[in-house]
Amino acid sequence: xxxxxxxxxxxxxxxxxxxIESGTERIALYGRLEIRRDRIGLQDIxxxxxxxxxxxxxxxxxAHLPERARSAHQTSVMPSPFMGRxxx
Amino acid sequence: xxxxxTGLTLASLLWAGITHAAAAxxxxxxxxxxxxxxxxxxxxxxxxxxxxxxxxxxxxxxSHGPLWTAEHLTEEGLERSMQxxxxxxxxxxxxRLSFEERxxxxxxxxxxxxRGHMVCSGDEPSLRxxxxxxxxxxxxPQTPELNEGIWTGVEIAVRRLxxxxxxxxxxxxxxxGASVKTIGSHRVFVPSATWxxxxxxxxxxxxxYFCQNSSQPTCTIISIGALTQATGVDPFPSLxxxxxxxxxxxxxxxxxxxxxxxxxxxxSPVLENMP
Lengths: 88, 275
What we know:
The complex is a heterodimer.
Chain A: E1 11-15, E2 17-22, E3 27-32, H1 39-60, E4 75-79
Antiparallel strand pairs in A: 1-2, 2-3
Chain B: H1 6-15, H2 20-25, E1 37-38, E2 47-51, E3 56-60, E4 65-74, H3 75-84, E5 87-90, H4 105-108, E6 114-117, H5 127-133, E7 139-142, H6 144-165, E8 167-175, E9 179-183, E10 188-190, E11 193-200, E12 205-212, E13 219-222, H7 224-231, E14 233-234, H8 241-245, H9 257-262, E15 271-273
Parallel strand pairs in B: 13-15
Antiparallel strand pairs in B: 1-14, 2-3, 3-4, 4-8, 6-7, 8-11, 9-10, 11-12, 12-13
């Protein structure tokens, strides 16, 4: 069930209120997760552990990790077509 | 039930290019049975109304994303959504839209922006509805600081309010500035802010969170009147003036620990009440 880290197929894993999303450049974990002493708590923490182990294995297996990866931008700016009708 | 402003609403819908029949199909997601209307005519180009199991979306082929999403949160629906538990979902292009008008996953690659849900997937009452919330027609580019920080806090705060009140009508969408940044080859518009408007039918009051889509996001609480002015979207067209002009007291959104850590010490999130 765990994703392939850094492969962006749009995958999003949700455990309680915690979200894990994989992108080509970064993986984000955010939200909150409550673990109780019950079966659901155990299932949730095992699911989280599986995701984290997969990410760690991927990074550990990468030969040349930079200290800090730079991100590539692919953006442009244009005037909004939703504005300016009144000042034409 | 409120007296609907039928004439105005129908006219706005027609001019926005939506048939009344299509709007009727998912009008139960709107407050007083009325979906949001566009008050800025320029927004009404290449729009498509999409009816999902748990929410309605007005999609723009110009911005390649939603202009608004509307949903009716109930205690019962939220109870069902919590029972769904752990899920794995995939963001996907919405197949109901043409390739030219929709956003693709590739538009978000290498963009520095998160795929930010408008309707929150975790609030959807069924697996199918959750899956539908992962269509890119329900998504706009949000900074990670917003999406993973105070926006998550807004979603949690609204969900708790709905549980406490028993039901809420929620309309969510993007706001665009005078110039827009775009990402990807489809030029998906990056909003300057995203907002979440709430109508509480129990207390008969309404208000909205308005959150800057920046690397140091802040949210303010504003009235429905102020929101409509700022965005060109009227989320609850049936509301009378006295409710529109006064922002209800909305719960303070929780900041996520992650947001705190990445924010510089001086840039702590601001939440101002601006009724």
